Predict the 3D structure of the following.
Amino acid sequence: MKIIEAKVIVSCPGRNFVTLKIVTDQGIYGIGDATLNGREKAVVSYLEDYLVPALIGRDPQQIEDIWQFFYRGAYWRRGPVGMTALAAIDVALWDIKAKAANMPLYQLLGGRSRDRILAYTHANGKDLESTLEAVAKAKAKGYKAIRVQSGIPGIAKTYGVSTSQKNYEPADSDLPSTEVWSTEKYLNFVPELFAAVRKEFGNEIHLLHDVHHRLTPIEAARLGKDLEPYRLFWMEDAVPAENQESFKLIRHHTTTPIAVGEVFNSIHDCRELIQNQLIDYIRTTIVHAGGISHVRRIADFASLFNVRTGFHGATDLSPVCMGAALHFDYWVPNFGIQEHMAHNELTEQVFSHAYEFKDGFFTPGEAPGHGVDIDEALAAKYPYQRACLPVNRLEDGTLWHW
Ligand code: CS2
Ligand code: MG
């Protein structure tokens, strides 16, 4: 079997997505997600100018050798752009291999380890009252796990809170918009938020929260302690995770479970966190961490240290990534939970998928491959529109973590 074509499809059905389609001489093709929110064109160039020319003519069955060629052979290893480009190739090749074997991808990985895949969704509101309403809506849709984010009294606009009726979309302007942040106001409010959610909805539902990289380790330790009475499923991205060592301080002070990793792109970003059991869930995703071949290594390593998977699944990860992730979730022994922010109607039209949601859980579907496809003609109707993620400043103007 030979790769005869690999094309990069950029489309913006309400938000930008980059999709790689690899076509073989036997008519089988595979697709991979290559979307990096706010940096899409960088991945397009990395693929079109450097990786795709070296892909043509290769045997698509040699998934591992191709992975090593583009990782070890890159010289400039790791990083979100290169590892997202590599991930797209990897997922497309796994899609081809499973289609050639006429089996759903999870069977190729080792078969299913569970009957269904627990998912969590987002509930957010501009204030406490509207956030409680959003939690009620998510619960009514059948979710058993809900991420709760709220506007913070005294802060005009903050991460995770939609400013319209549409789903929250952080890449909201051509150039970075500026948000203002106050750790004090946040730390004063969040325990009150979760006290209100638990009072309203009881202890049955899993509650998650995304701090989004904004605290120092001791502040994160304090928040973790303050949230212990509300028994969160996890506290996510409490601190910027370049300094893996700093998680020792958080771990020392609180039993609130810790999740991190959506911005990681290789096992080296999380090795210390995992082997020292400083986290409970690893969130590296198939689209940003080198694809199925590399995330499988991360998950297997994590299984040695009681760390479970909790893949990132925001709307800026396309249905192709969601499909591949759900096949992986179906198989992986140390599965934790899968994030699911519903894509908009247009995206659902551009990307058909075999995965299904029912009563709080997903199943990946039985179609050969990962079960997701792209309607190229429809995708072509929605041209790319640059959209960048915001920046964040403290109230005194200091540039802070977004
Ligand atoms: C968030 C994302 O879903 C999450 O956990 O961290 O919304 C994240 O902000 C976006 O994916 C960034 O593009
Ligand atoms: Mg997050």
